[in-house]
Design goal:
single chain; alpha/beta; three-stranded mixed beta sheet; 9 helices; 35% helix; 23% strand
């Protein structure tokens, strides 16, 4: 790379569960976005900040674009599409081991309206052989005028340096937007609620991950203690029973795992108070969505 310092915005876009958050965490070498094997884990646009001697990239990690069935899904899609408007580079992530889906066809239609450079990042290339990868590149290359097509694997850290070098070529010259030690612009409340939600996703089954939201009511700092009070919102009494578990074992496990990770993040002892509340059909209720931070 040259000595010219560059800085700009790069959006990650794709269908659900293509590895956008995993890629962001791997590039930053720090966990700034929650991840899980379940689709639609990311619900809000998140900024992750990469800085080296030659550039600063503000990555926009977005919810997966999907055919939505409620107002929450509509908001998630809107957040993802908005990240493709005022950005210097768009990175479309698509799995190398899967056929092009209807969700990706929707994204292709959207990106045809964009004029900024678009990269195709073929993810999970560690799961295909060379012939399959070659065929997948040919399948994609004529669908959009991609500036770059880069096979990557976040798990294997394959071609991530190539990706960064190529992004540099398309960034504008400029100074840093953030100090070098900042990796994310998420607030303490956002971090806390997402960590709690991640533990719920991992520990619960079936419909619970898609029907749950977390709201931080209080964060009280003392000299050597941070007390967090959070409300876990679900749609039905049956979901509340699952979250609490037999003799309170599920909510206890969620609390223990969330507290341990939050203590590492905030480097302080934490008292975590979790409460479960039922709000009927909250993903379709504009007032509830606003109160929960989805607006």
């Amino acid at each position: 790379m040259s000595n010219t310092f560059k800085a700009g915005f790069v959006s990650f876009i794709g269908k659900p569960n293509v590895g956008k958050s995993t890629l962001l965490n791997t590039i930053l070498k720090e966990k700034v976005a929650i991840v899980s094997p379940k689709p639609q884990t990311t619900r809000e646009q998140l900024q992750g900040i990469y800085t080296d001697d030659s550039m600063q990239i503000i990555f926009l990690d977005t919810p997966g674009i999907h055919k939505y069935h409620n107002q929450l899904g509509r908001i998630m899609n809107k957040q993802a599409t908005s990240a493709t408007r005022d950005t210097d580079v768009i990175c479309l992530l698509a799995p190398a081991n899967e056929a092009i889906s209807p969700n990706e066809e929707r994204i292709i239609k959207l990106l045809k309206e964009r004029t900024m450079p678009i990269f195709l990042l073929l993810t999970k290339v560690d799961l295909v052989n060379k012939v399959e990868l070659f065929n997948k590149i040919n399948e994609w290359k004529d669908l959009l005028p991609f500036k770059e097509i880069i096979p990557i694997s976040a798990i294997k850290e394959f071609n991530l340096n190539v990706l960064l070098k190529n992004i540099y070529q398309y960034l504008p010259e400029g100074s840093k937007f953030f100090d070098v030690d900042i990796k994310s612009n998420s607030s303490d409340q956002q971090i806390a609620k997402e960590v709690i939600r991640e533990k719920i996703i991992f520990l619960t089954r079936q419909e619970i991950p898609y029907s749950v939201a977390v709201m931080i009511e209080d964060m009280i700092f003392d000299s050597d203690l941070l007390e967090i009070s959070a409300v876990i919102v679900v749609q039905r009494e049956s979901q509340k029973a699952i979250l609490i578990g037999k003799k309170g074992q599920m909510i206890k496990s969620i609390g223990i795992r969330a507290r341990e990770e939050l203590e590492q993040i905030f480097n302080i002892k934490i008292m975590l108070n979790l409460f479960v509340k039922v709000i009927d059909e909250w993903p379709n209720n504009p007032k509830s969505l606003k109160e929960l931070g989805y607006s």
